[in-house]
Amino acid sequence: MTKPPDWEETLSDLARRRQHARGMGGPERLDKHRGKGKLDARARIDLLLDPGTFREIGTLVGGEVASDALIVGSGSINGSPVMLGAEDFTTMAGSIGPGGNSKRFRIAELALRDKTPLIMLLEGAGFRPGGGHYGRAPTDLLAQAQCSGKVPTVAAVLGPSAGHGALVAPVCDFRIMSQQGAIFTAGPPVVKESTGEDISKEDLGGPVTSLPSGVIHNVADDDEAVIADIRRYLSYFPPSAWSYPPSLPASEAGADTQPRATPELLDIVSRDNRRVYDMRAVLDVVFDRPDWFEVQPQYGKAIICALAHLGGHPVAVVANQPNVLAGSIDANAADKAAHFIMVADSFHLPLIFFADNPGMLPGSRSERSGVLRAGARMFAAQTAATTVKLHVTLRKAYGFGSMVMSLLGFDSQSATFAYPGATMGAMSAAALGRATHAGEDVTAKLRDAELQASFRSAESMGFDELIDPRETRDALLASLLRGLSARQAAAEPVSRTVILP
Question: Which keywords are on file for this protein (predicted)?
Protein backbone atom coordinates (compact mmCIF):
# COMPACT_ATOMS: atom_id res chain seq x y z
CA MET A 1 0.00 0.00 0.00
CA THR A 2 1.39 3.37 -1.09
CA LYS A 3 1.99 5.76 1.75
CA PRO A 4 0.00 9.01 1.33
CA PRO A 5 2.18 12.13 1.08
CA ASP A 6 2.57 14.24 4.20
CA TRP A 7 2.48 18.03 4.36
CA GLU A 8 6.24 18.37 4.27
CA GLU A 9 6.48 16.46 1.00
CA THR A 10 3.54 18.31 -0.55
CA LEU A 11 4.76 21.74 0.46
CA SER A 12 8.25 20.90 -0.71
CA ASP A 13 6.79 20.10 -4.13
CA LEU A 14 4.89 23.42 -4.13
CA ALA A 15 8.05 25.31 -3.19
CA ARG A 16 9.99 23.61 -6.00
CA ARG A 17 7.35 24.55 -8.57
CA ARG A 18 7.22 28.12 -7.31
CA GLN A 19 10.99 28.41 -7.41
CA HIS A 20 10.98 27.26 -11.02
CA ALA A 21 8.33 29.84 -11.96
CA ARG A 22 10.15 32.64 -10.15
CA GLY A 23 13.39 31.72 -11.88
CA MET A 24 11.87 33.00 -15.16
CA GLY A 25 14.12 32.22 -18.14
CA GLY A 26 17.07 31.17 -15.99
CA PRO A 27 20.29 32.90 -14.90
CA GLU A 28 21.89 33.12 -18.35
CA ARG A 29 18.92 34.75 -20.04
CA LEU A 30 18.30 37.04 -17.08
CA ASP A 31 21.92 38.23 -17.15
CA LYS A 32 21.68 38.88 -20.89
CA HIS A 33 18.45 40.85 -20.39
CA ARG A 34 19.84 42.94 -17.56
CA GLY A 35 23.02 43.52 -19.55
CA LYS A 36 20.96 45.58 -21.98
CA GLY A 37 20.15 48.05 -19.21
CA LYS A 38 16.64 46.68 -18.65
CA LEU A 39 14.94 45.36 -15.54
CA ASP A 40 13.48 41.86 -15.61
CA ALA A 41 9.71 41.43 -15.31
CA ARG A 42 9.70 40.73 -11.58
CA ALA A 43 12.05 43.62 -10.84
CA ARG A 44 9.73 45.91 -12.80
CA ILE A 45 6.78 44.80 -10.69
CA ASP A 46 8.73 45.30 -7.45
CA LEU A 47 9.70 48.84 -8.48
CA LEU A 48 6.20 49.76 -9.65
CA LEU A 49 4.34 48.62 -6.55
CA ASP A 50 4.52 49.80 -2.97
CA PRO A 51 7.09 47.58 -1.18
CA GLY A 52 5.80 44.20 -0.07
CA THR A 53 2.35 44.52 -1.62
CA PHE A 54 2.59 42.20 -4.64
CA ARG A 55 0.37 39.11 -4.48
CA GLU A 56 0.87 36.86 -7.49
CA ILE A 57 -1.85 34.76 -9.06
CA GLY A 58 -1.44 32.03 -11.64
CA THR A 59 2.17 31.40 -10.57
CA LEU A 60 2.15 27.78 -11.72
CA VAL A 61 0.35 28.39 -15.01
CA GLY A 62 2.46 27.07 -17.88
CA GLY A 63 4.06 24.20 -16.01
CA GLU A 64 7.61 23.87 -17.30
CA VAL A 65 7.25 27.21 -19.10
CA ALA A 66 7.85 29.50 -16.13
CA SER A 67 4.58 31.35 -15.36
CA ASP A 68 3.82 30.87 -19.07
CA ALA A 69 5.97 33.99 -19.71
CA LEU A 70 3.55 36.32 -17.95
CA ILE A 71 3.64 37.39 -14.31
CA VAL A 72 0.35 38.77 -12.98
CA GLY A 73 -1.23 39.73 -9.70
CA SER A 74 -2.32 42.56 -7.45
CA GLY A 75 -0.57 45.16 -5.35
CA SER A 76 -0.73 48.80 -4.33
CA ILE A 77 0.51 52.06 -5.80
CA ASN A 78 0.49 55.05 -3.47
CA GLY A 79 -1.60 52.91 -1.14
CA SER A 80 -4.30 52.19 -3.72
CA PRO A 81 -4.90 48.64 -5.08
CA VAL A 82 -4.09 47.82 -8.71
CA MET A 83 -4.06 44.77 -10.97
CA LEU A 84 -1.08 44.28 -13.23
CA GLY A 85 0.68 41.97 -15.64
CA ALA A 86 4.30 41.91 -16.83
CA GLU A 87 5.47 40.00 -19.90
CA ASP A 88 8.67 38.05 -19.22
CA PHE A 89 10.89 38.35 -22.29
CA THR A 90 13.45 35.91 -20.82
CA THR A 91 10.88 33.10 -21.12
CA MET A 92 10.01 32.22 -24.70
CA ALA A 93 10.40 35.90 -25.69
CA GLY A 94 7.40 36.84 -23.58
CA SER A 95 5.09 35.12 -26.07
CA ILE A 96 1.44 34.45 -25.24
CA GLY A 97 0.45 30.85 -24.60
CA PRO A 98 -3.01 29.57 -23.65
CA GLY A 99 -2.24 29.89 -19.95
CA GLY A 100 -0.87 33.40 -20.33
CA ASN A 101 -3.94 34.35 -22.31
CA SER A 102 -6.14 33.13 -19.46
CA LYS A 103 -4.12 35.11 -16.94
CA ARG A 104 -4.38 38.25 -19.04
CA PHE A 105 -8.15 37.84 -19.21
CA ARG A 106 -8.37 37.15 -15.48
CA ILE A 107 -6.57 40.29 -14.30
CA ALA A 108 -8.67 42.49 -16.61
CA GLU A 109 -11.78 40.75 -15.29
CA LEU A 110 -10.67 41.32 -11.69
CA ALA A 111 -9.71 44.95 -12.34
CA LEU A 112 -13.26 45.67 -13.45
CA ARG A 113 -14.86 43.52 -10.75
CA ASP A 114 -12.79 45.06 -7.95
CA LYS A 115 -12.79 48.56 -9.50
CA THR A 116 -9.03 49.01 -9.58
CA PRO A 117 -6.62 50.31 -12.27
CA LEU A 118 -5.13 47.84 -14.74
CA ILE A 119 -1.44 48.12 -15.73
CA MET A 120 0.35 46.09 -18.40
CA LEU A 121 4.15 46.03 -18.73
CA LEU A 122 4.83 44.88 -22.28
CA GLU A 123 7.82 43.18 -23.85
CA GLY A 124 6.75 40.17 -25.84
CA ALA A 125 6.51 38.48 -29.22
CA GLY A 126 2.73 38.10 -29.44
CA PHE A 127 0.91 34.79 -29.76
CA ARG A 128 3.17 31.76 -29.41
CA PRO A 129 3.31 29.67 -32.59
CA GLY A 130 1.49 26.39 -32.07
CA GLY A 131 0.26 27.66 -28.73
CA GLY A 132 -3.26 26.32 -29.08
CA HIS A 133 -5.06 29.66 -29.53
CA TYR A 134 -7.90 28.15 -31.49
CA GLY A 135 -11.54 27.42 -30.82
CA ARG A 136 -13.85 29.22 -28.46
CA ALA A 137 -11.75 30.80 -25.72
CA PRO A 138 -11.77 34.22 -24.03
CA THR A 139 -9.22 36.80 -25.07
CA ASP A 140 -7.84 39.50 -22.83
CA LEU A 141 -8.73 42.31 -25.24
CA LEU A 142 -12.43 41.62 -24.70
CA ALA A 143 -12.07 42.04 -20.95
CA GLN A 144 -9.78 45.03 -21.39
CA ALA A 145 -12.30 46.78 -23.64
CA GLN A 146 -14.91 46.30 -20.93
CA CYS A 147 -12.55 48.10 -18.51
CA SER A 148 -12.47 51.16 -20.77
CA GLY A 149 -13.94 54.19 -19.06
CA LYS A 150 -14.60 52.17 -15.91
CA VAL A 151 -11.08 51.76 -14.48
CA PRO A 152 -7.86 53.57 -15.49
CA THR A 153 -5.76 51.48 -17.86
CA VAL A 154 -2.04 51.98 -18.50
CA ALA A 155 0.40 50.21 -20.83
CA ALA A 156 4.19 50.49 -20.74
CA VAL A 157 6.26 49.27 -23.69
CA LEU A 158 9.67 48.36 -22.26
CA GLY A 159 11.09 46.36 -25.14
CA PRO A 160 9.86 44.95 -28.46
CA SER A 161 6.10 44.34 -28.38
CA ALA A 162 4.46 42.64 -31.35
CA GLY A 163 1.24 41.11 -32.60
CA HIS A 164 -1.63 40.53 -30.20
CA GLY A 165 0.38 41.74 -27.21
CA ALA A 166 1.02 45.06 -28.94
CA LEU A 167 -2.73 45.61 -29.31
CA VAL A 168 -2.96 45.92 -25.54
CA ALA A 169 -1.28 49.35 -25.63
CA PRO A 170 -3.55 51.36 -27.97
CA VAL A 171 -6.64 50.10 -26.13
CA CYS A 172 -5.30 51.62 -22.88
CA ASP A 173 -5.97 55.18 -21.66
CA PHE A 174 -2.27 56.01 -21.28
CA ARG A 175 0.63 54.52 -23.22
CA ILE A 176 4.26 55.11 -22.33
CA MET A 177 7.48 53.70 -23.78
CA SER A 178 11.13 53.48 -22.76
CA GLN A 179 13.89 54.41 -25.20
CA GLN A 180 14.42 50.66 -25.72
CA GLY A 181 10.76 50.04 -26.50
CA ALA A 182 9.29 49.25 -29.91
CA ILE A 183 5.72 48.38 -30.88
CA PHE A 184 4.41 46.95 -34.14
CA THR A 185 1.80 44.62 -35.62
CA ALA A 186 4.63 42.32 -36.74
CA GLY A 187 8.38 42.45 -36.18
CA PRO A 188 11.16 43.00 -38.74
CA PRO A 189 11.51 39.30 -39.76
CA VAL A 190 7.80 39.05 -40.59
CA VAL A 191 7.90 42.39 -42.41
CA LYS A 192 10.88 41.18 -44.46
CA GLU A 193 9.10 37.96 -45.35
CA SER A 194 5.76 39.63 -46.15
CA THR A 195 6.79 42.81 -47.93
CA GLY A 196 10.50 42.54 -48.65
CA GLU A 197 11.18 45.64 -46.55
CA ASP A 198 14.37 45.43 -44.51
CA ILE A 199 13.94 47.57 -41.40
CA SER A 200 15.15 47.65 -37.80
CA LYS A 201 12.77 47.28 -34.89
CA GLU A 202 13.70 50.82 -33.78
CA ASP A 203 12.67 52.35 -37.12
CA LEU A 204 9.63 50.09 -37.37
CA GLY A 205 8.10 50.88 -34.00
CA GLY A 206 10.50 52.66 -31.67
CA PRO A 207 9.92 56.14 -30.23
CA VAL A 208 10.95 57.76 -33.53
CA THR A 209 7.89 56.14 -35.14
CA SER A 210 5.36 55.51 -32.37
CA LEU A 211 5.40 59.03 -30.91
CA PRO A 212 4.71 60.88 -34.22
CA SER A 213 2.04 58.30 -35.09
CA GLY A 214 0.24 58.85 -31.79
CA VAL A 215 0.31 55.15 -30.87
CA ILE A 216 2.44 55.97 -27.81
CA HIS A 217 1.75 59.02 -25.65
CA ASN A 218 4.95 59.56 -23.67
CA VAL A 219 8.52 58.32 -23.68
CA ALA A 220 11.01 58.07 -20.81
CA ASP A 221 14.69 57.20 -20.73
CA ASP A 222 14.60 53.76 -19.11
CA ASP A 223 12.50 51.28 -17.15
CA GLU A 224 12.91 53.20 -13.90
CA ALA A 225 11.77 56.49 -15.43
CA VAL A 226 8.77 54.85 -17.12
CA ILE A 227 7.66 53.26 -13.87
CA ALA A 228 8.03 56.56 -11.99
CA ASP A 229 5.82 58.24 -14.60
CA ILE A 230 3.16 55.51 -14.28
CA ARG A 231 2.98 56.05 -10.53
CA ARG A 232 2.77 59.80 -11.07
CA TYR A 233 0.09 59.55 -13.76
CA LEU A 234 -2.14 57.34 -11.61
CA SER A 235 -1.81 59.72 -8.64
CA TYR A 236 -4.22 62.11 -10.40
CA PHE A 237 -6.91 59.46 -10.92
CA PRO A 238 -9.47 57.71 -8.74
CA PRO A 239 -9.34 53.90 -8.55
CA SER A 240 -12.37 53.69 -10.83
CA ALA A 241 -15.26 55.59 -12.35
CA TRP A 242 -17.25 54.78 -9.20
CA SER A 243 -15.17 57.23 -7.16
CA TYR A 244 -13.85 60.78 -7.45
CA PRO A 245 -10.22 61.84 -7.94
CA PRO A 246 -8.31 62.12 -4.66
CA SER A 247 -7.39 65.59 -3.43
CA LEU A 248 -3.99 66.06 -1.86
CA PRO A 249 -4.00 64.99 1.81
CA ALA A 250 -3.80 67.70 4.45
CA SER A 251 -0.18 66.78 5.17
CA GLU A 252 0.77 67.71 1.57
CA ALA A 253 -1.53 70.70 1.14
CA GLY A 254 0.61 73.72 1.94
CA ALA A 255 0.93 77.29 0.74
CA ASP A 256 1.05 76.11 -2.89
CA THR A 257 -2.63 75.16 -2.74
CA GLN A 258 -3.88 78.48 -1.35
CA PRO A 259 -5.47 81.39 -3.31
CA ARG A 260 -2.97 83.87 -4.74
CA ALA A 261 -2.77 86.56 -7.37
CA THR A 262 -1.00 85.90 -10.66
CA PRO A 263 0.65 89.20 -11.67
CA GLU A 264 3.27 87.26 -13.66
CA LEU A 265 0.67 86.71 -16.39
CA LEU A 266 0.80 90.40 -17.35
CA ASP A 267 4.37 89.83 -18.53
CA ILE A 268 3.77 86.40 -20.08
CA VAL A 269 0.60 87.11 -22.09
CA SER A 270 1.21 90.04 -24.43
CA ARG A 271 -1.67 92.33 -25.36
CA ASP A 272 -0.41 92.11 -28.94
CA ASN A 273 -2.25 89.13 -30.44
CA ARG A 274 0.53 88.66 -32.96
CA ARG A 275 3.22 88.05 -30.35
CA VAL A 276 3.71 84.43 -29.39
CA TYR A 277 4.34 83.12 -25.89
CA ASP A 278 4.67 79.72 -24.27
CA MET A 279 1.41 78.56 -22.69
CA ARG A 280 3.44 76.32 -20.41
CA ALA A 281 4.57 79.44 -18.56
CA VAL A 282 0.91 80.29 -17.91
CA LEU A 283 0.23 76.83 -16.51
CA ASP A 284 3.32 77.08 -14.29
CA VAL A 285 1.87 80.22 -12.70
CA VAL A 286 -1.80 79.23 -12.44
CA PHE A 287 -1.50 75.75 -10.97
CA ASP A 288 -0.23 74.77 -7.54
CA ARG A 289 3.23 73.77 -8.71
CA PRO A 290 5.07 73.85 -12.05
CA ASP A 291 5.57 70.06 -11.96
CA TRP A 292 2.28 69.27 -13.71
CA PHE A 293 2.25 66.14 -15.88
CA GLU A 294 1.95 66.57 -19.65
CA VAL A 295 0.36 63.80 -21.70
CA GLN A 296 1.54 63.27 -25.29
CA PRO A 297 3.86 66.31 -25.47
CA GLN A 298 5.44 65.29 -28.79
CA TYR A 299 2.17 64.87 -30.72
CA GLY A 300 -0.30 67.55 -31.77
CA LYS A 301 1.86 70.22 -30.17
CA ALA A 302 -0.61 73.03 -30.91
CA ILE A 303 -2.60 71.83 -27.88
CA ILE A 304 -1.21 71.02 -24.44
CA CYS A 305 -2.96 68.23 -22.53
CA ALA A 306 -1.87 67.99 -18.92
CA LEU A 307 -2.74 66.77 -15.43
CA ALA A 308 -2.28 69.30 -12.64
CA HIS A 309 -3.44 70.33 -9.18
CA LEU A 310 -5.46 73.45 -8.43
CA GLY A 311 -5.99 74.09 -4.75
CA GLY A 312 -4.85 70.52 -4.14
CA HIS A 313 -7.52 69.10 -6.45
CA PRO A 314 -6.56 67.06 -9.56
CA VAL A 315 -7.66 68.67 -12.83
CA ALA A 316 -7.22 67.99 -16.55
CA VAL A 317 -5.97 70.88 -18.68
CA VAL A 318 -6.57 71.51 -22.39
CA ALA A 319 -4.66 74.60 -23.55
CA ASN A 320 -3.85 76.12 -26.94
CA GLN A 321 -0.14 76.65 -27.54
CA PRO A 322 0.44 80.04 -29.28
CA ASN A 323 4.07 79.28 -30.12
CA VAL A 324 3.04 76.32 -32.32
CA LEU A 325 1.15 77.19 -35.51
CA ALA A 326 0.18 80.43 -33.72
CA GLY A 327 -2.20 78.29 -31.70
CA SER A 328 -4.13 77.02 -34.75
CA ILE A 329 -5.64 73.60 -34.05
CA ASP A 330 -4.55 70.90 -36.49
CA ALA A 331 -5.93 67.37 -36.85
CA ASN A 332 -3.34 65.76 -34.58
CA ALA A 333 -3.92 68.28 -31.80
CA ALA A 334 -7.70 67.81 -31.99
CA ASP A 335 -7.41 64.01 -31.98
CA LYS A 336 -5.09 64.13 -28.98
CA ALA A 337 -7.41 66.46 -27.08
CA ALA A 338 -10.52 64.41 -27.89
CA HIS A 339 -9.04 61.25 -26.38
CA PHE A 340 -7.67 63.12 -23.37
CA ILE A 341 -11.04 64.77 -22.71
CA MET A 342 -12.84 61.42 -22.82
CA VAL A 343 -10.39 59.89 -20.37
CA ALA A 344 -10.63 62.87 -17.99
CA ASP A 345 -14.42 62.92 -18.13
CA SER A 346 -14.67 59.17 -17.56
CA PHE A 347 -12.85 59.53 -14.25
CA HIS A 348 -14.50 62.79 -13.16
CA LEU A 349 -11.42 65.00 -13.51
CA PRO A 350 -12.51 68.65 -13.87
CA LEU A 351 -11.57 70.08 -17.27
CA ILE A 352 -9.97 73.52 -17.57
CA PHE A 353 -9.68 75.06 -21.05
CA PHE A 354 -7.23 77.88 -21.85
CA ALA A 355 -8.13 79.30 -25.26
CA ASP A 356 -5.83 81.41 -27.42
CA ASN A 357 -6.20 80.34 -31.04
CA PRO A 358 -7.10 81.82 -34.46
CA GLY A 359 -9.28 78.78 -35.24
CA MET A 360 -8.75 75.41 -36.88
CA LEU A 361 -5.65 75.21 -39.07
CA PRO A 362 -6.59 76.20 -42.64
CA GLY A 363 -5.01 75.05 -45.90
CA SER A 364 -5.02 72.11 -48.29
CA ARG A 365 -2.58 70.04 -46.26
CA SER A 366 -4.69 70.48 -43.15
CA GLU A 367 -7.86 69.59 -45.02
CA ARG A 368 -6.27 66.44 -46.42
CA SER A 369 -5.33 65.42 -42.88
CA GLY A 370 -9.00 65.51 -41.89
CA VAL A 371 -8.91 68.57 -39.66
CA LEU A 372 -12.69 68.98 -39.73
CA ARG A 373 -13.27 65.35 -38.75
CA ALA A 374 -10.76 65.62 -35.93
CA GLY A 375 -12.20 68.97 -34.82
CA ALA A 376 -15.70 67.49 -34.80
CA ARG A 377 -14.43 64.59 -32.67
CA MET A 378 -12.90 67.02 -30.18
CA PHE A 379 -16.08 69.09 -30.09
CA ALA A 380 -18.22 66.00 -29.54
CA ALA A 381 -15.93 64.85 -26.71
CA GLN A 382 -15.93 68.15 -24.85
CA THR A 383 -19.60 68.98 -25.28
CA ALA A 384 -20.56 65.48 -24.12
CA ALA A 385 -18.37 65.79 -21.02
CA THR A 386 -20.37 65.77 -17.79
CA THR A 387 -17.55 66.68 -15.43
CA VAL A 388 -16.85 70.19 -14.12
CA LYS A 389 -15.78 72.42 -17.05
CA LEU A 390 -14.04 75.80 -16.74
CA HIS A 391 -12.97 78.09 -19.59
CA VAL A 392 -10.65 81.09 -19.99
CA THR A 393 -10.10 83.02 -23.23
CA LEU A 394 -6.75 84.73 -22.88
CA ARG A 395 -6.48 86.70 -26.14
CA LYS A 396 -8.51 85.20 -28.98
CA ALA A 397 -10.71 82.31 -30.01
CA TYR A 398 -12.23 82.24 -33.48
CA GLY A 399 -14.82 80.10 -35.21
CA PHE A 400 -14.80 76.35 -34.60
CA GLY A 401 -11.59 76.87 -32.65
CA SER A 402 -13.69 78.48 -29.92
CA MET A 403 -16.33 75.76 -29.90
CA VAL A 404 -13.89 72.88 -29.39
CA MET A 405 -12.38 74.81 -26.45
CA SER A 406 -15.73 74.94 -24.63
CA LEU A 407 -16.28 78.66 -25.19
CA LEU A 408 -19.90 78.67 -26.35
CA GLY A 409 -22.62 79.43 -23.83
CA PHE A 410 -25.04 76.71 -22.74
CA ASP A 411 -22.29 74.08 -23.03
CA SER A 412 -22.63 73.01 -19.38
CA GLN A 413 -19.63 74.97 -18.12
CA SER A 414 -19.35 75.77 -14.43
CA ALA A 415 -17.65 79.06 -15.32
CA THR A 416 -16.42 80.98 -18.37
CA PHE A 417 -13.91 83.83 -18.18
CA ALA A 418 -12.05 86.08 -20.61
CA TYR A 419 -9.38 88.71 -20.37
CA PRO A 420 -10.38 92.25 -21.39
CA GLY A 421 -9.38 92.88 -24.97
CA ALA A 422 -9.86 89.25 -25.97
CA THR A 423 -11.07 88.93 -29.55
CA MET A 424 -13.56 86.43 -30.87
CA GLY A 425 -16.03 85.78 -33.65
CA ALA A 426 -16.22 83.82 -36.89
CA MET A 427 -12.78 85.08 -37.99
CA SER A 428 -10.32 87.86 -37.28
CA ALA A 429 -10.94 91.38 -38.53
CA ALA A 430 -7.94 91.12 -40.86
CA ALA A 431 -9.21 87.89 -42.39
CA LEU A 432 -12.74 89.25 -42.71
CA GLY A 433 -11.42 92.41 -44.39
CA ARG A 434 -9.51 90.34 -46.94
CA ALA A 435 -12.40 87.95 -47.52
CA THR A 436 -14.82 90.82 -48.24
CA HIS A 437 -12.27 92.98 -50.10
CA ALA A 438 -13.06 95.77 -47.65
CA GLY A 439 -11.40 99.16 -47.98
CA GLU A 440 -9.06 100.62 -45.40
CA ASP A 441 -11.80 102.54 -43.63
CA VAL A 442 -14.02 99.46 -43.26
CA THR A 443 -11.07 97.31 -42.17
CA ALA A 444 -10.20 99.88 -39.51
CA LYS A 445 -13.79 99.79 -38.21
CA LEU A 446 -13.69 95.98 -38.13
CA ARG A 447 -10.46 96.10 -36.16
CA ASP A 448 -11.90 98.58 -33.67
CA ALA A 449 -15.00 96.41 -33.25
CA GLU A 450 -12.76 93.42 -32.69
CA LEU A 451 -10.86 95.19 -29.92
CA GLN A 452 -14.16 95.98 -28.18
CA ALA A 453 -15.55 92.47 -28.65
CA SER A 454 -14.84 91.26 -25.12
CA PHE A 455 -16.68 94.20 -23.56
CA ARG A 456 -19.65 93.83 -25.89
CA SER A 457 -19.75 90.12 -25.15
CA ALA A 458 -19.62 90.80 -21.41
CA GLU A 459 -22.54 93.22 -21.75
CA SER A 460 -24.56 90.39 -23.26
CA MET A 461 -23.43 87.75 -20.75
CA GLY A 462 -21.20 86.09 -23.34
CA PHE A 463 -18.90 85.22 -20.46
CA ASP A 464 -19.62 84.87 -16.79
CA GLU A 465 -16.98 87.52 -16.12
CA LEU A 466 -14.17 89.47 -17.70
CA ILE A 467 -11.20 89.11 -15.38
CA ASP A 468 -7.89 90.84 -14.79
CA PRO A 469 -5.12 88.31 -15.66
CA ARG A 470 -3.91 88.73 -12.09
CA GLU A 471 -7.19 87.16 -10.94
CA THR A 472 -6.88 84.02 -13.09
CA ARG A 473 -5.92 81.45 -10.47
CA ASP A 474 -8.34 82.74 -7.85
CA ALA A 475 -11.26 82.93 -10.30
CA LEU A 476 -10.63 79.36 -11.47
CA LEU A 477 -10.08 78.04 -7.94
CA ALA A 478 -13.30 79.57 -6.58
CA SER A 479 -15.28 78.20 -9.54
CA LEU A 480 -13.65 74.79 -9.19
CA LEU A 481 -14.57 74.57 -5.52
CA ARG A 482 -18.14 75.56 -6.35
CA GLY A 483 -18.30 72.91 -9.07
CA LEU A 484 -16.85 70.23 -6.80
CA SER A 485 -19.49 71.00 -4.19
CA ALA A 486 -22.06 69.53 -6.59
CA ARG A 487 -20.65 66.09 -5.82
CA GLN A 488 -23.30 65.27 -3.28
CA ALA A 489 -23.92 61.72 -4.51
CA ALA A 490 -21.72 58.73 -5.20
CA ALA A 491 -19.75 58.79 -8.42
CA GLU A 492 -21.01 56.69 -11.30
CA PRO A 493 -19.49 55.79 -14.68
CA VAL A 494 -20.23 58.03 -17.64
CA SER A 495 -22.69 56.56 -20.11
CA ARG A 496 -20.21 55.66 -22.83
CA THR A 497 -19.55 52.34 -24.49
CA VAL A 498 -15.77 52.72 -24.80
CA ILE A 499 -13.07 55.38 -24.93
CA LEU A 500 -12.00 55.47 -28.57
CA PRO A 501 -8.23 54.91 -28.98
Answer: Transferase
